[in-house]
Structure formats: structure tokens, C-alpha cells
Amino acid sequence: MTLAEWLFWISFGCIAYTYALYPAALAAACAFQRLWRRPGGRPSTSRFASAWPTISLVIPAFNEEKHLAAKLRNLAELDYPSDSLEIIFVSDGSTDATDLLISRAELPGLRYLRIASRQGKPTALNAGVAAAGNEILVFSDAATLFACDAIEKLARHFADPRVGVVCGTVEFAPTPDGPHTEGLYWQYERWMREREARIGAATTASGAIYAVRRAAYRPLPADAILDDLLVPMTARKLGYRIEQEPEARALEPAAATLHGEFARRARLAAGGFRSLRQLGACATASPSVFWAFFSHKLLRWLSPVFLLALLGTSLALRGQPIYRFALAGQLAFYLWALAGMTFRERLGGVRFALVGYFVMAMNAALLVGLARALAGRQPVTWIRVN
């Protein structure tokens, strides 16, 4: 075969594996495990016999005055003993009314830290952890609303000393396009994460809701972006297990526009590529973890590169029927995506009509993130997009 043919089939194979073959293999691994797992193999998640563990809830915030009233009400409604719950807000150089609102709030166990100049989320998290007085840490965002029993659902896993991280489940506030774009994506993503956890290969959490055993936490580098990937992967390297808890639910405001979601994903992609060496070292904790990281993260992040290579080689080889057919299929997909972008408002209520547009936009965001990582131009500070 020619070089172009090799590139075509490698790119095609990586895309097919990432989006189809890996999920199928993951489902098969879970089925095999259910068939052969001995009774009692899953760690207990029953209530603690005597008292619930003391929790430190750490919430970094930057200019969150828009969301704080709802957040404070939500914290007051949590179904967890107030004498066992410490709440630490860390204001990362906020310039709006965030500091004033937090300092005036009257909640049992509430503490407030201020970082004078904006440093970024990793510094805020490290400061919150350093100030925390408890062994179980729960991380959340200022705009995230927990279900009343969410902390209880997270905490129950720490009865097992082998558990280092427990990941909650995020749901996004409804948007007109959500059920047909982000909603479908998150259904797929949750399905993957839950099955990776079942075979002991979970690698990531959602920064909006996850819990960490203090002994499994290591201070984040000041330039880190993906704390919800670095923290679990570091815990893995230290020998701890990561659990998914589907019943620990949180509601996160969705990006108001696809442009906002694009910006968020480009930032996360840049953070992933910048942390690749550290993440790769952590991924060697076990063969299953390496498999999940390579398949679910690394190949997914490189998907836009494979897509471009697939398109370019199809064009170069279009004189042969099989490659001409492949080119026609790709062009049809891109036309579908273009139609979704052009007629988004009209097609918003049509099931699956915007999926092509969403997939292409997110792959374009990954490509932008890769370019920023290579250029070293992605700042660590964050700007909320909702």
C-alpha cells in the first residue's frame, strides 16, 4: 500500500475504534465481569455503622454573584448533618459582589477564603484543601446545585479504605437544543464512565461533583486545567480505587450557546494535552486504566487529527472506488453538520438533526485546544460561559 493508503486506514481504524469498537469492548468486559465475579466482590456502600464521616466541601469561585443566591439556598437544604459538614468558599480574586455575598451568608460551618489576585482554579482548590479540617473532601462549582442526598451518596463509599475518589453524576439544565446535542453526548459519556468504573478502570470525574480522600489528594500544579482528571488519576497512581456513584446527582447550568460550549471544550482540550506526560505516567497504574485512558481520552482528543487525515487521504485516493465511496460518506456527514449550523433554530426540535453539527463543533474545539497547547497560549484562569 502507498503512504496515503496507510494513513487512510490508520485514521479510519482509530476513529472506528474510539467511537464504536471501544464502547462495544467495554460492554463485553462488563458482561464478562458480571458472569464471573464472585459474590461480595463489589465494595459495600451501606450506611456507616455509627456516624457519618466529617466532610469538607470546597467551592472555588470567581465572579459568581449571579449564581451565589441559589447556591447558598442549595447548601442550606443539603440532607447531611450540619455538625459534620464544613463548607469552604475560596474566592479567586473576584471583582464583583461574590466576596460580599459569601461573607454575609449565614450557614453552619461556612468558611470564606480570599485569594487577593486571580491565580486560577488549581491554586484555589489547593488553598481550600489546605484550610480544610476533615479527611473527606468534596469539590463543587459555585453554579452547581446538589441533590439533597448527594453528599450522603458520595460519603458512603469511603467506608471502604481502598476507595480514594468517588465521582458523582452531572445533569445539565435544559436548553432548547440540549436533548439533541449535549444531552445525547452526556448520556453516552455517563454510560462509558459507569462501565469503566465497573471493571476498575475509571479515570475521570466531573469537577462539579466529586469526593476525594485527603490521603489520595496531591497539590495540583499551578498551571493545571483538568483537576477532575488529574486528581483521580493521581489517586490511581497512589493505589486507590475510583468509584462512580450514579445516585449522587448535581445540576449544572449548560452553556447558553454552542459558542460557549466550544470555548469550554477548547480550554479543557488544551489542558489535557498540556498534562499529557503527567496523565500518561498515572495511567500506568494498571492495564485496565491504561486501556481506558488511551481509548477514552487520548484517542478521543486526537479524533480531529484523524478526521482531517481521513478527509485528505480520501481526496488523494478518490480515483479508487472504495476511497471515492469513503469520500462521499464524509462529505455527506459534513453537509449534515453544515445544515445543522445554518438552520439550527429551525431544526432545534428535530431529533438527531443537530448531532452532526455538535460533533463537528466539538472536534473543532479539540483541534483548537491542541493548537493552544502546542503554542502554550491557554491561560489557567477560567471564565464561566453560562
Describe the structure.
The chain is α/β, with parallel strands linked by helices. Helix content is 52%, strand content 14%. It is built from 14 helices and eight strands. It has an eight-stranded mixed β-sheet, sandwiched between helices. Helix 2 links the parallel strand 1 (55-61) and strand 2 (85-92). The longest helix is centred in the N-terminal third of the chain and has 34 residues, at 3-36. The protein is globular, with a radius of gyration of 22 Å.
Layout of SSEs?
Layout (H helix, E strand, L loop, with lengths): L2 H34 L18 E7 L3 H12 L8 E8 L5 H7 L5 E6 L5 H11 L4 E5 L4 E2 L3 H6 L7 E10 L9 H17 L10 E5 L13 H11 L3 E12 L5 H17 L1 H8 L3 H15 L1 H14 L4 H22 L1 H4 L7 H21 L11
Parallel strand pairs: 1-2, 1-4, 2-3, 6-8
Antiparallel strand pairs: 4-7, 5-8, 6-7
E-strand count: 8
Strand content: 5-15%
| First-to-last CA distance | 49 Å
Q: Report the order of strands and helices.
A: HEHEHEHEEHEHEHEHHHHHHH
How many helices does DSSP assign?
14
Instruction: Kindly report the average pLDDT value.
Output: 87
**Helix fraction?**
40-55%
> Using only CA atoms, what is the Rg?
22 Å
Key traits:
386 residues, alpha/beta, 14 helices
Provide a brief overview of the structure.
The protein is an alpha/beta fold.
